[in-house]
Amino acid sequence: MKWFLLLVFVALIVSGILNKEKLPFWNKEKPRNNTPGNISQEENEDELNKDKPNLIKNSEPDQVDPIEEKYPIPDFKPIEELVGNWKKIPASAFPRQVTLKAKAKYVFAGGAGSSTAPAGGKTFAISLSGDKLVITPNKQSNVRGTISINDTNYKEILGDEY
Fold it and tell me: Per-residue DSSP letters for 9-48?
């Protein structure tokens, strides 16, 4: 218990030393006589406005930031232009997990059967075939399906990432 109290005491001392500019009794400035009769109104206003930012605007014209001048923000093309109005989506945009807005049909490899995924379900878009997304339940699955790109949130996902 003695060690704990000693540790707490030392921690308080160290904390006080590290924050001495915030503690008035650690400052070495001589205290001012702050009685109401000894402070002029100007001193009082100076004291109140000491921590406020200077709100006076320069009459000089706005100067261009040298960093902004050296590295201007580029003009980004709309994403529709980059992906050829959603007809030429690059392979780097796949696979992406998407949410279905309409039900989708998966066909098992070799046409052995099919399955349906409900609207609101999660699936992976792995490529684009014509104007339809090729989807699969997970990235490694051999089950494939197609769905219109408008029946998923794929456009929103790529738009957000762009």
Answer: HHHHHHHHHHTTTT-GGG--SPPP---GGGS-HHHHHHHH
Torsion sign across C-alpha atoms 87, 138, 143, 140: positive
The pLDDT score that the predictor gives to residue 44 is 66
Domain ranges of the chain: 2-49, 82-161
Q: Do 126 and 143 form a contact (C-beta atoms < 8 A)?
A: no
d(CA 59, CA 57) in angstroms, rounded, equals 6
Query: Which regions of 6-151 does DSSP assign to beta strands (E)?
Result: 96-99, 104-107, 114-117, 122-129, 132-136, 144-148
- Predicted structure pTM score: 0.53
| 154 burial via Cβ count (<10 Å: 0-12, 13-18, 19+) | buried
Pairing between strand 96-99 and 132-136?
A: unpaired
Tokens representing 129? Answer: 């075939």
**Domain 82-161 belongs in CATH node 2.30.30:** yes
* Joined tokens for residue 48: 């109140």
Reply yes or no on whether the pLDDT at 57 is more than 60: no
